[in-house]
Design brief:
Layout (H helix, E strand, L loop, with lengths): L20 E6 L3 H17 L7 E6 L5 H11 L4 E9 L5 H20 L3 E8 L2 H6 L1 E3 L2 E2 H23 L9
Parallel strand pairs: 1-2, 1-3, 3-4
Antiparallel strand pairs: 5-6
Helix pairs in contact: 1-5, 2-3
Length: about 170
């Protein structure tokens, strides 16, 4: 069981003032995913990202997050995608298949499209675990996913700048 508050960061976030983000959110377990979205939006705004640089799209469930993320990569000019969802274990193996498909699919999108895709999908044994990780006693995984997206978008920007020969000796 995770014991760290997901909303506490060890280092300050880079500025997201000039970054654009797509957020794809699962409608399934809407109480939880709505709270994850609120956390992600809060973190992006606190890092300086203006609302007009944030686009939110809904998909039916966690299984569809990968295609939603791919649509952002294919049809928009975002710097990173944040995928938010929640899968709660039930009495059948469905949980395992959905979690595996979401994990693999989102990773495949970021590798195929050379774009950061932050994994903000809760995979919990019960509803209380989901609530604890979506604004409860363990913070908000949406905060963590947004912070990851900001950091990875900045890393990509830095690497592209270095590849252009403008910043070869910078250590960060």
């Amino acid at each position: 069981m995770a014991t760290k508050n997901l909303s506490l960061f060890d280092t300050p976030l880079p500025s997201a003032e000039n970054m654009r983000f797509g957020i794809v959110v699962s409608e399934w377990n809407g109480q939880v995913t709505g709270a994850l979205l609120a956390g992600a939006l809060k973190t992006l705004r606190e890092a300086g990202c203006p609302d007009y640089n944030i686009t939110v799209k809904m998909v039916p469930g966690a299984f569809e997050l990968s295609l939603g993320a791919q649509y952002f990569a294919e049809y928009t000019e975002v710097d990173a995608v944040i995928a938010l969802g929640c899968v709660i274990r039930g009495g059948t193996p469905h949980f395992d298949y959905v979690c595996q498909a979401a994990t693999h699919g989102l990773n495949q999108v970021q590798i195929s499209w050379n774009m950061p895709v932050a994994f903000g999908v809760l995979t919990c044994d019960d509803e209380q675990q989901a609530l604890d990780r979506s604004g409860g006693q363990l913070g908000n995984k949406g905060d963590e996913a947004a912070a990851t997206a900001i950091r990875m978008a900045r890393l990509q920007q830095d690497m592209e700048t270095a590849a252009d020969g403008q910043d070869r000796m910078k250590v960060s």
